[in-house]
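Pasting two entries for a bug report.
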Amino acid sequence: MISEVVMPQMGADMKEGTVLRWLKAEGDQVERGEAIAEIETDKANIEIEAFDPGVFRKVLVAEGETVEIGTIIAVIAAPGDDISAYESGERKISATPATAAAQSARPSQPGAAPATAEARAPSPPAGVAPPARGQAATPITRTDSRYRASPVARRLAEELGLDLGALQGSGPDGRIVRRDVEDAAKRGAAASKTQPVITAATAPPAPSIPSATMPAPGTVVDMPLSRMRRTIASRMSQSKREAPHYYLTVDADMTEATRMRAQINDALGESGRVSINDLLILACTRTLQRHPNFNSWWVDEHLQVHGRVNIGIAIALDDGLIAPAVLDCQAKPLSQIAREARDLAERSRSGGALTPEEYTAGTFTITNLGAFGVDSLIGIINPPQTAILGVGRVQDRPAVQDGQVVVRSMMTIALAADHRATDGAEGARFLQTLKEILEKPALMFV
């Protein structure tokens, strides 16, 4: 049996992807579900897996090459199968329209979308033909210090101390991609950056905010959007256009939760460190188990309620925001959630590969800007999910307790939910449960 490996569609707005590296060599035996390649999409690096066992017979797209979704990039087959049509170039695009979407995630698991589901971004992993390839945007001359580059290329250049302005991009529209940075590092052709290195001793306590060059007075600079920013713009516009949002906010007393967190961190040390966001992931998991309609996707004008709790965490990158998911939170202790959330963030920021499931299987999202000193945040739902929790900082505020005004550690949380899936009363009950669990954190463990 011949199995075509295609460039998968990781979201409805994805039109092309880049093969970063092959994890298998021609002639290797491949098992179903085994990672075979790492690809670069608009927003992340993704490992794709074999959907059928066999021999890894032929690589059709070289490392560093960018191709449209649906393009056949490799062939897995039995040793005696005839693959001459692929070797001669007669077969380039998958004959099955849904193949690109179907290969965007692992085989169906409990709570996953059926094969007929409509693809959205992040989308159920099947059933939609790739969108038509749009006309490439006309390159615009850049007059500032920013350069058209993929997120992984930016991070790699920063790690290697290379100046993006000295590089020539080989990607679409002259975009600088990973191979351009790696080639420059080998040649030693790029000039070193002159910015001072920020050490742990001098780093600010909150995440740094990227700076941009102000145009000269009387001038206007036309800033073209990166592929990631275009994808974000499309998805957020789709969400606000199609999903009737409603919003609810509440203040949670985090005094006991922060005290418990400090005790856990003192006992476990750096290796077992737990953040406020980790507590939120576990608290939301327990809340979603009691209010499952919020752990859902809106697909084909109906609600799909998931049995797995996959919590997406919003992670800020140079070019925009992604929300990969910590998978199966309902079955994991706090310590494991903390490790996996930390690993997810590190891989996302360093250009490490995410799995298709981490990228597309989220059932609920948490977006937290507390580290930036933000008091409250109301998010936009990440389709096809039906709810998102916005989180502000934990800060000391006056509060009334037992008739007395006392100082407590307070945090504002805001639920944005899809009115097609739930209503305001359900949202209020969801927040009541979440607030109770956060204020009595022992409830997370029962």
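Entry 2 (this is the one that rendered wrong in the viewer):
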Amino acid sequence: MLYNDRYFNQLIQLTSAYEANSGTIAQQEFTYLEVEPGRGIYSWNDYNNNGIQDLEEFQIAAFIDQAKYIRLFLPNQVYLKTHQNKFSQSVTLNTSQWQNETGLKHILSYFYNQTTFLGERKIKRVGDGFDFNPFVSNESNLLGLNSSFRNSLFFNRGKQKHSMTYTFLYGRIKNLLSVGSQESANVSHQLQYTHLYATNWLINFGSKTIHSELLSENYTARNYQLEGYQMAPKISYLFSKNASWDLFYEYQNKKNKTGSLESLAQSRFGTSFNYSSEKKLTINGEFSMYDNGFVGNSLSPVAYEMLEGLQPGSNSTWRLLIQKNLTEYLEVNLNYQGRKSEHSNAIHTGNLQLRAYF
């Protein structure tokens, strides 16, 4: 079932979608297959130093050179009967049509609000009943879940004069695997401020809270509950509409509330640039220096998640992307990335891609 409508002269825009079905899902078994670096999604870290690729030692790669493995699902004869339903909802409140009004309506015309919700769940089917409710379920019967909520409130949306955005995010995912269930949840409050000063200087300030947790039924070493915050001021100089140069700083604090109680205080300072010409040439690059004050065992799944693939102490990363349209149908991309830590040599990764449009 799909439904779209607009109310009060497009003041409120509404989009709804709902579907339900019954079927079966496999209690998935899987392994990891090594591929060419950059072609995969996962990285392997031998946390227990036994040289054996245990399933709990694979994580989503933080850098392209570490992405050497893909997840391969194996044939399975164990199926569970399920009910599945999916509901999504989007509500937009657009008051910009009141910009020529006076009083309260004129004040409200500076605001814009967008709300989205997605709920997709799979529950165990018992008997011949059919479950249509996309919101309520017994946790003991819940086999799979993908739920997310996002609300963004804008002030001066699309403008560069004291423009602000407040966003609330919530997400929860639960999967049924042969090694047991795995569940993750994320909650964040985010604030973004942008202002253009004296034509050429663009000031940005971003901040957010961090709440992230992972619960694995059988791999307790991967469990964590992270709490923290992040602040990120940035100043940009706009040479023209096609060229800019940035200076930025980012401070991030994370603490694990379970297990070994790891903590991270990370400072990042860097610069970046962006250039695009009318001759269909685009160049952008970035250089960052990190200072990671990490307390805990750095060779663990939790540390890899908190450090985002970097190492304790001083780190630096850099990247360069060059994109050029050779003809109307041919495009070439050169992508180069690198990183270095205190106790390792520099790692360089590059690829060249030629793309044809038909």
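Dev reply: Rendering is fixed now. As a check, the viewer should reflect this: The first strand starts at residue 2 and ends at 7.
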